[in-house]
Amino acid sequence: MNTWQQYQGIYVHIPFCVHKCLYCDFASTAGCDTALMESYTQALCKEITARAAELPVAADATIYFGGGTPSVLPLPYLTRLVTTLKDVGLWQHPQEATIEANPGTVTEESLEALRQLGFDRISLGIQSLQDDELRAMGRIHTAQEAVEVLRQARQAGFERISGDLIYGYPGQTLASVQSSVQGLLAQGLDHLSVYGLTVEEGTPLQRKLASGTLSLPDDDTVGDMYDFVTTYVPQQGLSRYEISNYARPGQESRHNMLYWRYVPYLGLGAAACTFTGQALVTNSCDIAKYNEGKNRQIENLTQPELAAESLFMGLRTAQGVNLQETKERFGCDTWSRYGRELDQAIHAGLLSYDAASQILRLTAKGMQYGNQVFAIFC
Predict the structure, then answer these.
(1) What gap in Å lies between CA 89 and CA 358, rounded to an integer?
(2) Same domain, residue pair 111 and 197
(3) Is position 237 within any domain?
(4) pLDDT at residue number 23
(5) Domain co-membership, 251 together with 331
(6) 150 lies in a domain?
């Protein structure tokens, strides 16, 4: 059985946060209502049990607890979820088991407990190492707390640690972004995710920008931030393996690579999405409806739609996509369908194509202006 016919990863969504950040449009809720967490954990265990036999699951399928902030869920509830996953055979011998956490929501003791549960990778939402920027974003931690949690995670036995940063946020300067990136890498981090700010409709940040209360850095400054990140981080030994992600060799996020390789994965929890290889199955983002088992949506995809999605996702990576594999898997000849647009993108310096290997990939310029390429497949 090939990797396209079995789940290669398991995603578990924990929709709770201590505080909702100004820029966030993720499916999450602020506050830690113990009764709601209890009922959600019960519903999630029920879904895990009910869906365990949907598709074969690879014995080394990755595990990823995302959110929200999974680390705000009390340890007994996390233990119950992990135990259920193991009991039904979804958590077997994962090549990687990741949990997201924010500084300010973990302690040395809780990190040790998470490591003992079986998590071996932790992804930390740091976002900045400037206290004024953290306050402006609505983060609950300080820069010193972020540095301290890195030390605690290593002490607890996490050998795979990732940190997230944002650039282009109101109030940020080139110098402050440089300081945050340099400061975080000085801690010996082996994986760094650096995201250019996207202002999502309906967020508090969008409303503040619309009212003039806040303003974004100008385009030239944001461009300088991008140029610094894409130049400096590789100089420190972390290769850019995806548009927003850098890692030392062997430290890439194995779970996230599943999405970019467009192989089947099982999504569990409110708002979680499953890809079966032929369809997308999405749970309700409303926690109350999810707890009642309501509003799951199924979208069956055509072969051309599957091919387009695989190209869209695969081109995000430095390795690009193999067009022969795309044809074998989806029966779609990429050049017949998108040849004119791809030729234009190649001529514009956004894409490169190796005819011998049939590898299509973004150039350095294409990495910066990827949306122009991705629009081809929409």
Answers:
(1) 38
(2) yes
(3) yes
(4) 65
(5) no
(6) yes
Which pLDDT score is estimated for 355? 94
**Residue 322 lies in domain:** 302-378
Interatomic CA distance for residues 169 and 246, integer angstroms = 20
Residues written for the chain: 378
Question: Burial, 313: exposed, middle or buried (Cβ in 10 Å; 0-12, 13-18, 19+)?
Answer: middle
CA distance 114 to 122: 9
Residue 101: Cβ-neighbour burial (10 angstroms; 0-12, 13-18, 19+): buried
The answer to whether the CB of 128 falls within 8 A of the CB of 166 is yes
Looking at residue 99, which CATH number applies to its domain?
A: 3.20.20.70
pLDDT score, position 338:
95
If we measure between CA atoms, which residue out of 21, 38, 363, 371 comes closest to residue 166? 21
Q: Burial level of 154, CB count in 10 A (0-12/13-18/19+)? A: middle
Structure tokens belonging to residue 117: 């549960």
Query: What per-residue confidence (pLDDT) applies to 20?
Result: 59
SS3 sequence, 266-311? EEECCCCEEECCCEEEECCCCHHHHHCCCCCEEEECCHHHHHHHHH
Give the residues of the chain that fall short of pLDDT 50: none
- In the DSSP assignment, the letter for residue 317 is B
Q: Which two tokens stand for residue 178?
A: 């440089």
Predicted local confidence at residue 172, as pLDDT:
95
Question: What's the structural domain count of the chain?
Answer: 2
User: 315 in helix, strand or coil?
Assistant: coil
What pLDDT is recorded for position 260?
Answer: 97
pTM here is: 0.95
* DSSP three-state, residue 107: coil
Q: What is the pLDDT of residue 138?
A: 82
Distance CA 327, CA 143 (A): 48
- Cβ atoms 295, 284 nearer than 8 A: yes
Q: What is the pLDDT of residue 215?
A: 87
Q: What is the distance between the alpha carbons of residues 364 and 350, in angstroms, rounded to a whole number? A: 8
